[in-house]
Write a structure and sequence with these properties.
Blueprint (H helix, E strand, L loop, with lengths): L11 E7 L9 E7 L4 E5 L8 H7 L3 H7 L3 H18 L3 E2 L3 H14 L12 E2 L1 H8 L9 H7 L10 H18 L1 H4 L3 H25 L15
Parallel strand pairs: 1-4, 4-5
Antiparallel strand pairs: 1-2, 2-3
Helix pairs in contact: 5-9
Amino acid sequence: MSENAWYQGPLMGFDTETTGVVPKKDRVIQAGIVTEKKDHDWLINPQVPIDPGAVAVHGISDDKVKAEGIDPKAALEEVAAHLRTAIEERIPVVIYNAPFDLTLMYYEFERHGITDVDLERLLIVDPLVLDKQMDRFRKGKRKLDIVAAHYRVELSDAHSALADARASVALARILGERFADLAAMDAAELCAAQKEWYAADKERFEAWLRSKGRDADIDRRWPLAL
């Protein structure tokens, strides 16, 4: 493959841990960004309670963020600066299950008056979408830790934002190297393809649910669900 293949060049990894699972209302409490030069992470005091179900997943308590977390606007402005760099330098940003993290960030930026990051201009690489498209009929769940294990990617601290971001970047590189259809695209082509693949996957899942007599209206928007 060309030395300029997207998976061989610079990639930025991004992940969050949050107060809950509803992007429009929940808040970031931990963010991790992986770059070619340095990794960055933030523990953030969201100034709202963390859902107990979320604490059970990532282990970050209200007491911890109150004692150690930084101001959300200050942290988010730093995150925004990295994402602006990705936009300006056309660096693909790897986000596992992008519609959750990226949509949540959209609302967080809006909430804190950060208006100079156009998230729709990001070149997103979503290993969850890539894996589902390239190995559609593999049985089992597709959570990050499971998919990482399938591709033999180390993930020693799952549900830490920085560890998850690192694993996501490693997954993206492996998927690009393993599947010629992915490697043949440039980052912009891949981003457009993922949008179609994601929608088609949700359409198939919706049809399956309806075949079982269940009501289904699944959001097909990727990478932002606004």
